[in-house]
Specification:
Elements: H1 2-11, H2 13-20, H3 23-29, H4 38-50, E1 54-59, H5 67-87, E2 92-95, H6 106-123, E3 127-129, H7 137-152, E4 156-161, H8 167-175, E5 181-184, H9 199-220, E6 234-237, H10 241-254, E7 262-266, H11 271-279, E8 284-290, H12 295-304, H13 306-319
Parallel strand pairs: 1-2, 1-8, 2-3, 3-4, 4-5, 5-6, 6-7, 7-8
Helix pairs in contact: 1-12, 5-6, 6-7, 8-9, 9-10, 12-13
The chain binds dihydroflavine-adenine dinucleotide (FDA).
Residues 130-131, 159, 161, 184-188, 237-240, 264-266, 269-270, 287, 301, 304-305, 308 line the site of dihydroflavine-adenine dinucleotide (FDA).
């Protein structure tokens, strides 16, 4: 119930208006968000690299409402690429298609994506396309497939959510084309007619999809690049230790090289586990969000774990 309310709040404009102006909320969000500027985010990325952790940068923002904003959002991704090049930093980038116009006009979105991928190819940077709520799944996949056909196969990958019934088939279709896939549980509230209502079923589906990804990685000999810039086919994105250990065990069982998969986590979550995996010589990539539009992302993180909300509220009470 609390989780559903928080997911509602993450999408409510009135709540965003209030909370984003609140300096205490901004300070608390800093636990999950690497600053408001690209410079701050790149400083965080460098520190993670020093600890042996690869990264994917995300400039926060969702659902733009004008073509100009969509163009501007794509330009900001181009700025990230230039900055990474200029600083000699090897990081991937994650983007949301709604940020570059998906909900407004597909052609605008497609053109913005092509601009991004052309620059990514020129600068040897990998672009991951995040998955948003189920109203955008078909459109996201269609644009992803179309973009790949333009010769960007090695420069982009997609995300699939184990919460959706359709995902197992989507994964099979994507793997038939050797696509790089990040599997996550899914951060959005979905109707039970299209998504597993029970956590146990979401987890079981996560493991089923993990099996397929690992088998394909082994068959294709896909490995993370030595400099951490490019991921292998499977990116296992979760903080759920059971899911991670399941993946590592299955990979071991079928003889997949340690670098034939990578574990992905969000900035500021389960840093102990990130470090443990690095010590065990598994590739770990951390998703590093930054930007002024941190509100929906921050509230989704609170929704995932009541303890985070508790931490937020007790600090607030202490402050007053
Ligand atoms: P689960 O929610 O079951 O949590 C397992 C354990 O992890 C918890 O018991 C707790 O210990 C820890 N944990 C989880 N969340 C925490 C938090 N906020 N704070 C502290 N501890 C926490 N979703 C999506 O719909 N589209 C996408 O493109 C992406 N992309 C993405 C990239 C990466 C790298 C990650 C890690 C995740 C995503 N997600 C996503 C989000 C994902 O769908 C999911 O909402 C979160 O990862 C939380 O679920 P877990 O898999 O961690 O499991």
């Amino acid at each position: 119930m609390l989780k559903l309310f928080l997911i509602y709040l993450s999408q409510a404009d009135w709540a965003r208006q209030i909370v984003q102006r609140w300096s205490f909320a901004k300070r608390t969000a800093a636990r999950f968000v690497a600053g408001e500027t690209l410079d701050e985010a790149v400083a965080v990325v460098k520190k993670l690299h020093q600890r042996g952790i690869a990264t994917t940068l995300d400039h926060l923002g969702e659902n733009v409402i004008s073509k100009e904003d969509a163009f501007q959002a794509a330009d900001e991704v181009l700025d990230i690429i230039s900055k990474l090049k200029q600083e000699g930093v090897r990081s991937g980038i994650s983007i949301k298609l709604s940020q570059i116009g998906l909900v407004l006009d597909r052609e605008v979105c497609q053109n913005n994506l092509i601009r991004i991928l052309e620059s990514a190819r020129e600068n040897e940077i990998f672009i991951r396309i995040d998955m948003e709520d189920s109203s955008l799944t078909d459109a996201t996949l269609e644009i992803f497939y179309a973009a790949r056909k333009n010769g960007f196969e090695n420069y982009t990958g997609i995300v699939i959510q184990s919460s959706l019934y359709r995902s197992i088939q989507d994964v099979k279709n994507l793997l038939a084309e050797q696509c790089k896939i990040r599997i996550c549980k899914g951060a959005y509230k979905e109707h039970r007619s299209i998504a597993y209502p029970q956590k146990k079923s979401v987890d079981e589906n996560f493991d089923r999809i993990t099996d397929l990804l690992i088998e394909q990685s082994k068959a294709a000999g896909s490995l993370v690049s030595a400099d951490g810039g490019f991921p292998p086919i499977p990116a296992i994105a979760t903080h759920d230790q059971d899911r991670i250990e399941y993946a590592l065990e299955y990979a071991r069982k079928i003889g997949l090289d340690k670098t034939g998969l990578e574990i992905q986590m969000l900035y500021g979550i389960r840093e102990d586990l990130q470090e443990d995996l690095v010590n065990r010589e598994y590739p770990v990539r951390v998703y590093v969000p930054y930007g002024k539009e941190w509100y929906p992302y921050f509230v989704r993180r609170l929704a995932e774990r009541p303890a985070n909300l508790w931490f937020f509220l007790t600090n607030l009470v202490r402050l007053n």
